[in-house]
Amino acid sequence: MDRRALLSYAADTFGTQPEYPWEDEPGFAVLRHRENRKWYAVIMNVQAKRLGLDGGEIDIVNLKCDPAVSAMACDGRSVLPAYHMNKTHWISVVLGAAPDDELLTLLNMSYELTAYKPKARK
Q1: d(CA 35, CA 116)
Q2: Does residue 1 register a pLDDT over 80?
Q3: Distance separating alpha carbons of residues 21 and 19, to the nearest angstrom
Q4: What is the pTM of this model?
Q5: Rounded distance, CA 38 to CA 73, Å?
Q6: Half-sphere exposure (CA, 13 Å, Cβ side) for 48?
Q7: Residue from 43, 39, 38, 87 nearest 62 by CA
Q8: Burial code of 52-72, b = ≥16 C-beta within 10 A, e = fewer?
Q9: How far apart are CA 75 and CA 35, in angstroms?
Q10: Most buried of 23, 56, 63, 71, CB within 10 angstroms?
């Protein structure tokens, strides 16, 4: 799945559009919840070597992930510890390298993990 398809899925499934908050990084897009404004995905174009991979510039998406799941999902090729984020709670998925169903499962999980949760009354 490429960047365009991922953004289309997010718009259709969650009703969110990308935001481009950094003028100096026009290829970096943030997907966030409308209710609480929390990020659930950050799409970036980075040099592969920054992730310990071979090649030139690649597209990745950072997703929030349960630490137990991220330990199982990280394979060193398509799913990696997060680039530029907390590596315990976030992962980076290389777009076009991870199977679409795995990417969408991780995206849905990230959306749920960052969703608004009402506080319990005491």
Answers
A1: 7
A2: yes
A3: 6
A4: 0.90
A5: 23
A6: 12
A7: 43
A8: ebeeeebbbbbbbbeeeebee
A9: 33
A10: 63
